[in-house]
Amino acid sequence: MRREAIREYLASALWAMPTAAVVVALIAGAGLSTIRLDPASPFAVLLFQGTSDDARNLLISIASTMVTVIALVLGLTVVALQLASTQFSPRLLRNFLRDIPNQLTLSVFVATFAYSTAGLYTVGIASGQRIEEYPRLAVSGALLLLFVSMVMLVFFVHHLAHSIQIDQVMKSVEKATLRALEHSFVEGDPHLRLPRPPRDAMALPAPGSGYVQAFHVEALVGALAHQGLTALVVPMVGRHVVAGTPLVWVWKAADDGERPLTPEASAELRKALVQTVRVGYERTLEQDVAFGIRQLADIASKALSPAVNDPYTANQAVDHLASILAALAVRQHGPQAVRDAQGVVRLHVPARDFDYLMELALGQVRRYGASEPRVVRALLRVCGDVAWFGDKTHHAVVRRYIETLLSDVERVVPQKADREPLLAEGAAILETLD
Prior knowledge:
- There is one protein chain.
- By secondary structure, the chain is of the alpha+beta class.
- Among the domains are: 2-164, no CATH class; 289-332 and 352-433.
- The protein has helices at 2-11, 16-33, 52-88, 93-97, 100-119, 136-163, 166-184, 218-227, 263-274, 289-303, 311-329, 354-369, 373-387, 392-412, 416-433, and strands at residues 125-126, 129-130, 202-205, 210-215, 229-233, 240-241, 246-252, 277-280, 336-339, 345-349.
- Strands 3-7-5-10-9 form a 5-stranded mixed sheet, covered by helices on one side. Strands 6-4-8 form a 3-stranded antiparallel sheet, with no helix packed on it.
- The two termini are 46 Å apart.
- The model has no long low-confidence stretch (mean pLDDT 88).
C-alpha cells in the first residue's frame, strides 16, 4: 500500500523526473570529464575544438539560455493548467501534471542547465589557476544537450497545443478511465445485501480525513480470519471520510463463541487496516472509475452552462461517456463478499451499482441539456448503444433513464416540431428494449 501510494504521488509530482534528470546529468558530466581522447583518434573530430575560454563562454551561454527557456516552459504550462481548469474542469489539472511529455521536456531543460553549470567548475580552472587543458568530451556533451533541448522545445509547443484541445483532453480521460476499469475493477453481486453491524460491533476509525483512494483487502481479510471476525467497510472508493469516523465495522462471527476481542487483536486489526485502505487528500483514478466519469460529466455540464453555451462539446463528452458506459454494461456491479482461504466470508465491501454510474455520467447532462434537441439526441444515442450490451438489470437502468429523459423533453421543449421527433426516437429505443 505504501509503495503504491508513493508511486501514485510521484506520477503527478512535477519535480520528481526533473530532479532525477539533474542527478543523472551531474553523474554523466563527472564521468565524461575523466575521459581523455587521443588527438589521433578518429572520434577527435567530434570534440569541441575551441580554447578553454571558448569552452567556458559556451557553457555560460548554454546555462543562461536554459534559464530563459525553462521560464518559458513553466509559463506555458501554467497557462495550459489555468485554461484547463477554467474552461473544462478543475479536476483535469491532475491529468496535466501526470503528462509524461511535459515532465520529460522540463527534465531535459533542467538537466542541460545543471550539466552546463557544473562544467564551469572543471573547464579552464584547476586549483584556482587558469589552464588550457579541459575535458573536451564533456563540453561536447553540453553542445549535444543544447541541440536536444531545442528539439524538445519545438516538440513541447506542439504537444502543448494539442494537449489543451478539448478532443484530446476528453480522449485522454476516456483512455485513463478504461485503463482503470480494465486493471482495477472488481465485479460484485447486484443481489448481495450488505449486513447490518450488530450492536456490539467495534468501529475501526479513519486515521485521517480525505478521500478513499484504494482498497487492498488481503491484509485485513487475513487478520479477520486469524481472529475469527467479520467486518464491513463503510465508505466506497472515492468517498470522503472524516478522521475518527468509522471506516470499518468489526464483529465476532456467529460460530466464534463469546471470546472477547483482546487489545492485541485490536492492534493487529488497526495495523491491517493501514495496509488495506488508503486515504488521501484528492481522488485518483487508480481504482475510482467514477472519478473519470465525473471529469467527463463536468466538461459536458460546463459546456451546457449559460456562460459557455457549447452544446457540441457536451455531445462530444457524451460520446466519450458512451464508451465507458458500454464497458461498464458488460460487468456485474454491486458489493463484494470477500472470503478467506477456507471459503468463509470475512469482509463486505460496498461498491457503486450501474444505476449510480449511469446517473453520474448522464444525469446532469439530462437536467441541463433536456431543452436542446441535439443534446437529447446524443443522450438517446448513448442509451441505444449501451442497451446493446449488458443484461436485463442494465436494460432496466437504461429504460428508467430514457423514460425520465422523455418526461423532461415533454416538459421543457416547447416546439412540437422539435419535441415529437425526440419522443418518437426515444419510444423506438424503448421498444427495442422490450
